[in-house]
């Protein structure tokens, strides 16, 4: 079903009871009011809805509304919704034991704790595992992930110990497949994605083709906005109930005490069925590096955000600081000056390009040369730089590894769109920008524009036979620090 059957109405903020000046302060704080230490540690898109109308939206160039985005754990909230749909269809109950669905994959002598584990425990991240099982399941030797999950020790009585556990969400996806004979994405397509007008969703899969469930969903920012607006409307969308109001209330209530995990205030308020409770009686789905679907029921507001961030709490802090006090119960007087300032800001959003010059006397020493790189964690073997009048092409070859070759052409002073590999996911959209930040240093910024990933590559030119390549990630699963790699000219 095409999304043409529904378009969010647009409205001025004041007519929906929000001060444009408050939204502008929020947008400006996203760019300059954070402790980010990397130029591309940034929000990439945002949509703000009040009373079902879009009051502000923006995409930081080179991101745009058409690009789907990897949602990471925000995917979990969609998987939870599939369970709600299956419950409404009478396919299962949240009180059903997990072992019921996997008779052929259960251990020969399951423990009492494993026998006690229910669908509700999977939903509420209270399976009884002391630590996250995801690594053991996804990187184990057995490509039958449900069997691996069920083989792991369950140290606590289910319901007594919260641990964030993406493999538990995967098991919800596997249950849908066991019940319906369909992969999760196919089950959800006619029941959720099509009615919401979410076109061409993609979901990463396990070795047997099952949707991962706990991560791996790719949709647009507006797709996120439609999903959370549907939750704000108690499961109703465009005149029909996608989910029952009872399920929405149950899924977004706190079922687990998650105060044993983190000190960040919006990660300790309670956990529902794949939704986090927040301060101010709000709730959200979220994903690593800053993908948010935030619902504020008391304010009748919803917010969708995609990002590549190191500190996810900062964004929520700014929502509470700037947006929440800008929301009022009644419409506000029209404020043309503030509305124009906000509209101008939103039209000019752009991730920062490197500051510097389009050329350097050192560029000639790179021409026609390929540099062999010292051994490194990225698997990069060689690098070559081809500078032209208004562009520069950076090529990183990863020979003999499971990585792809990265080749991007960057504009000077602007983002230049193209396609490349480099992340191990095959060919995908990229955009790049470059500058000589000093006579010896060429900086190339690269954004994989359907993801959070925006590394910076700095090539420091030595005597023409040697270079230093610095790879500076905006985000990383481990330590997001720059890595320096020495290179020597071939031949």
Could you characterize what this model shows?
The protein has helices at residues 20-32, 75-88, 112-116, 119-123, 134-138, 145-151, 166-180, 184-196, 221-232, 245-252, 312-326, 336-347, and strands at 42-50, 53-59, 69-70, 202-203, 217-219, 236-237, 240-241, 276-277, 283-287, 291-296, 301-308, 370-373, 382-387, 391-397, 406-412, 416-420, 428-438, 441-448, 456-461, 466-472, 483-489. Helices cover 25% and strands 24% of the residues. The mean pLDDT is 95. With 491 residues, it is an alpha+beta fold. Strands 12-13-14-15-17-18-19-20-21 form a nine-stranded mixed beta barrel. It has a six-stranded antiparallel β-sheet with strand order 2-1-11-10-9-8, with helices on both faces. The chain has twelve helices and 21 strands. Helix 1 (20-32) packs parallel to helix 12 and helix 2 (75-88) packs parallel to helix 7. The protein folds into two domains: 3-347, DD-peptidase/beta-lactamase superfamily (Beta-lactamase), CATH 3.40.710.10; 361-489, Calycin beta-barrel core domain (Lipocalin), CATH 2.40.128. A hairpin with a 3-residue loop joins strand 13 and strand 14. The protein is globular. The protein starts with 19 loop residues before the first helix and ends with a strand.
How would you describe the oligomerization state of the chains in this entry? single chain
The largest beta-sheet arranges its strands as 12-13-14-15-17-18-19-20-21
Structural category: alpha+beta
Total beta-strand segments: 21
Helix content: 25-40%
Question: Counting H and I runs of at least 4 residues, what is the number of helices?
Answer: 12
Shape: globular
The tally of structural domains comes to 2
* Proportion in β-strands: 15-25%
């Amino acid at each position: 079903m095409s999304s043409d059957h529904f378009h969010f109405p647009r409205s001025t903020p004041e007519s929906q009871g929000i001060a444009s000046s408050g939204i502008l302060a929020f947008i400006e704080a996203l760019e300059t009011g954070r402790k980010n230490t990397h130029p591309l540690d940034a929000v990439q898109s945002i949509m703000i809805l009040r009373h079902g109308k879009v009051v502000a939206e923006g995409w930081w160039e080179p991101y745009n509304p058409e690009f789907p985005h990897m949602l990471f754990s925000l995917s979990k909230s969609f998987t939870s919704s599939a369970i709600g749909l299956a419950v409404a269809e009478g396919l299962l109950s949240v009180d059903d034991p997990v072992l019921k669905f996997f008779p052929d994959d259960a251990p020969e002598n399951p423990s009492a704790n494993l026998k006690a584990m229910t669908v509700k425990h999977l939903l509420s991240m209270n399976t009884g595992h002391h630590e996250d099982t995801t690594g053991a399941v996804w990187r184990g030797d057995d490509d039958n992930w449900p069997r691996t999950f069920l083989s792991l020790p369950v140290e606590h009585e289910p319901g007594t110990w919260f641990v964030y556990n993406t493999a538990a969400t995967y098991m919800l996806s596997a249950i849908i497949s066991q019940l319906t004979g369909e992969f999760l994405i196919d089950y959800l397509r006619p029941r959720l994605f099509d009615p919401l007008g979410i076109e061409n969703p993609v979901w990463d899969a396990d070795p047997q083709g099952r949707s991962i469930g706990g991560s791996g969903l790719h949709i647009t920012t507006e797709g996120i906005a439609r999903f959370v607006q549907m939750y704000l409307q108690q499961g109703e969308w465009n005149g029909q109930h996608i989910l029952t109001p009872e399920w929405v209330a149950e899924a977004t209530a706190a079922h687990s005490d998650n105060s044993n995990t983190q000190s960040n205030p919006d990660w300790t308020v309670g956990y529902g069925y794949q939704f986090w409770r927040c301060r101010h009686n709000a709730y959200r789905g979220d994903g690593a590096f800053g993908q948010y679907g935030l619902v504020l029921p008391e304010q009748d507001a919803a917010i969708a955000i995609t990002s590549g961030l190191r500190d996810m709490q900062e964004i929520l802090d700014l929502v509470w600081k700037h947006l929440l006090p800008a929301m009022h119960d009644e419409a506000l007087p029209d404020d043309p000056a503030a509305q124009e300032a906000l509209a101008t800001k939103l039209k000019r959003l752009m991730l920062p390009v490197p500051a510097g010059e389009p050329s350097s006397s050192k560029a000639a020493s790179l021409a026609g040369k390929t540099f062999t790189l010292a051994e490194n964690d990225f698997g990069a073997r060689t690098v070559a730089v081809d500078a032209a009048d208004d562009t520069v092409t950076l090529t990183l070859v990863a020979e003999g590894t499971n990585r792809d070759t990265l080749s991007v052409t960057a504009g000077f002073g602007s983002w230049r769109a193209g396609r490349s590999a480099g992340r191990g996911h095959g060919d995908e959209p990229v955009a790049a920008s470059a500058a000589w930040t000093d006579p010896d240093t060429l900086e190339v910024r690269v954004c994989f524009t359907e993801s959070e990933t925006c590394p910076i590559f700095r090539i420091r030119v030595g005597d023409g036979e040697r270079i230093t390549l610095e790879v500076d990630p905006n985000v990383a699963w481990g330590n997001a620090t720059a890595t320096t790699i020495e290179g020597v000219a071939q031949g």
